[in-house]
Write a structure and sequence with these properties.
The complex is a heterodimer of chains A (117) and B (113). Chain A is an all-beta fold and 117 residues long. Chain A has strands spanning 4-7, 10-13, 19-25, 32-38, 44-51, 57-58, 67-73, 76-81, 90-97, 107-108, 112-116. In chain A, the strands form two sheets. In chain A, strands 2, 4, 5, 6, 9, 10 and 11 form a seven-stranded mixed sheet that branches. A four-stranded antiparallel sheet of chain A has the order 1-3-8-7, with no helix packed on it. Chain B contains no helices and eleven strands. The chains are: A mainly beta (117), B mainly beta (113).
Chain lengths: 117, 113
């Protein structure tokens, strides 16, 4: 399958700081990327959908000013958690797909563990 | 409203046995049904996927059975191994992966020796 990477794999930050998470498609051009949040022992919760060169579409209840998403190229999307607070601590996972594929499968990155102190 | 219902929540299977996880969906517009495997602290990995034009798809020890009229699909893991112990998520979407996947709540599988 296609390879998606995320950086960093884990980050610890102080409350009030901003954190940037990168999601990269390593061997394909990702026309669409998705950002998810996952709490322990729970399913994945979609935060937003981003298409290359367009503004991200956020799910209801997700603050777009707090979770800034940029999909500036066909291989990179970034999620910036602004003014992070302890309640933002979670596992953040991106996925990517390509419109050139027949079945548009989604491949996930390894995730980023964010801990806000 | 949960659009994809997954059961059971947890499953314990003896090594060599068959693991069966079921999912039911409500939206008849769904036309892409993948299964993902997730190990603790890792991202989900695409295991196998099916579209409604076939009733079954097999890849190695993993088989998806699909029942369009019942709006149900299931994952069968044959000859289950301890290394299969993970959380499995079914999902569904319209038009393939370009649209957001709707996930089930997951099944935690434990394969014991």
């Amino acid at each position: 399958g296609a390879v998606v990477s995320q950086h960093p794999s884990r980050v610890i930050c102080k409350s009030g700081t901003s954190v940037k998470i990168e999601c990269r498609s390593l061997d394909f051009q990702a026309t669409t990327m998705f950002w998810y949040r996952q709490f322990p022992k729970q399913s994945l919760m979609l935060m937003a959908t981003s298409n290359e060169g367009s503004k991200a579409t956020y799910e209801q209840g997700v603050e777009k000013d707090k979770f800034l998403i940029n999909h500036a190229s066909l291989t990179l999307s970034t999620l910036t958690v602004t003014s992070a607070h302890p309640e933002d601590s979670s596992f953040y996972i991106c996925s990517a797909t390509s419109s050139s594929w027949v079945y548009n499968e989604q491949f996930f990155g390894p995730g980023t563990r964010l801990t806000v102190l | 409203q949960q659009q994809v219902k997954q059961s059971p929540q947890s499953l314990i299977v003896q090594k060599g046995g068959i693991s069966i996880i079921n999912c039911a969906y409500e939206n008849t517009a769904f036309d892409y049904f993948p299964w993902y495997q997730q190990f603790p602290g890792k991202g989900p990995a695409l295991l196998i996927a099916i579209r409604p034009d076939v009733s079954e798809k097999k890849e190695g020890r993993f088989t998806i059975s699909f029942n369009k009229s019942a709006k149900q699909f299931s994952l069968h893991i044959m000859d289950s191994q301890p290394g299969d112990s993970a959380t499995y998520f079914c999902a569904a979407s319209i038009g393939g992966g370009n649209t957001p996947l709707v996930f089930g709540k997951g099944t935690r599988l434990s394969v014991i020796a």
